[in-house]
Amino acid sequence: MNDSTIKGVLAMKIAFLGLGTMGFPMAANLVRAGYAVRAWNRSPAPVERLAALGAQAAATPAEAAADADVLISMLADDDATETSLLDAGALAALRPGAIHVNMATISVALALRLAGLHQARGVAYVAAPVLGRVNVAEAGQLNILAAGEEQALAAVQPLLEVLGQKTWRLGRQPEQANAAKLAMNFMIASAIGAMSEAVALVQGYGLDKAGFIELATSTAFAAPVYKGYGQAIADDRFEPAGFKLALGLKDVRLALEAGEQAHVPLSLASALRDLHIDGLAHGEGHLDWAALSRASARRAGQA
Questions:
Q1: Could you tell me which residues come within 8 angstroms of residue 268 by beta carbon, excluding any fewer than 6 positions away?
Q2: Where residue 43 falls among pLDDT bands split at 50, 70, 90?
Q3: 181 belongs to the catalytic site
Q4: Which of 65, 130, 160, 245 is the residue whose CA sits 20 to 30 A from 181?
């Protein structure tokens, strides 16, 4: 990329909606990279923190989106996304030719609806949900699952390179990226659920769970998901939550919904949904996803 191209890319006006656990470090990385960022968040404190780094503060989603070349949203769920984009007017404020990059984990159904609404307004729509926890977002090392029109993807690729270590281009239909993200989160939930029941099994025979987790994650399951969540299970370390159990339930439900729409049975996801509900019934929704292990321990009479 030559100097003139770099200057042209940096001249893009970026709107950013949602400065939560993941959104704030992502927006901060864009500001540090030299982009002009105008940000909105439901609570004002994160906006003030980002403004201290050099961003502009917006009082409403529509104000953030006005005159933006690219709108990036990283909102908690379907309801927050619909409220900010549609009810609060962010989509209506975007000019024709602008690009919206939705990096949140949302339902396939909402992804399809948003694609149609954007097309009607002449705004390009890219779905780009991410893989990685807050420390990965802070380091700009997220894996980004992207789908949308090639021209729009190419235009926002410099932004995605600031936010992530790799962009996985999955197709031209935005909902394809959302389906892939839900499938990945279903696999993560399955890994946590399997470890939780395996730990309960070995504890039933008097084995130390920390030693068992070390064995598993040093041999057959030496992968980041098993190592990270496994260590949290071994240490009973569920706060602060990197990803809340309640959000895990949301994503398992969305995976089941997507499976039903595509006539794909997900029997394991049904069992995982019930395990999550057990956790919420015991007031554990605010804890880290690894706290699923508590539900397995209860079912085994170990807690």
A1: 190
A2: very high
A3: yes
A4: 65
CA 147 to chain centre: 15
Q: Per-residue pLDDT tens for 249-293?
A: 999 999 999 999 999 999 999 999 999 999 999 999 999 999 999
Q: Which residues contact 4 (CB under 8 A, 6 or more apart)?
A: none
CA angle in degrees (0–180, nearest 5) for 39-41-45: 100
CB atoms within 10 A of CB 268: 15
Residues 6+ apart with CB under 8 A from 275: 193, 196, 292, 295, 296
DSSP annotation of 265 reads -
**CA 5 and chain centroid, separation:** 30
To the nearest 10°, report the CA torsion of 136, 190, 170, 138.
-10
* Amino acid at the residue 46: P
The SS3 assignment for 16 reads: strand
Contact 100, 124 (CB under 8 A): yes
- DSSP annotation of 103 reads -
Neighbour count for residue 204 (Cβ, 10 Å) = 11
Closest CA to 146 of 129, 165, 162: 129
At residue 303, the pLDDT reads 84
CB 186 within 8 A of CB 266: yes
Residue 162 structure tokens: 């600031």
The one catalytic residue in 7, 13, 181, 227 is 181
- How far is 185 from 189, CA to CA, in rounded Å? 6
> Helices 150-163 and 23-32: crossing angle, nearest 10°?
90
Between the CA atoms of 201, 202, 205 and 211, what dihedral angle is there, to the nearest 10 degrees? -160
Note the pLDDT tens digit of each residue in 147-172.
999 999 999 999 999 999 999 999 99
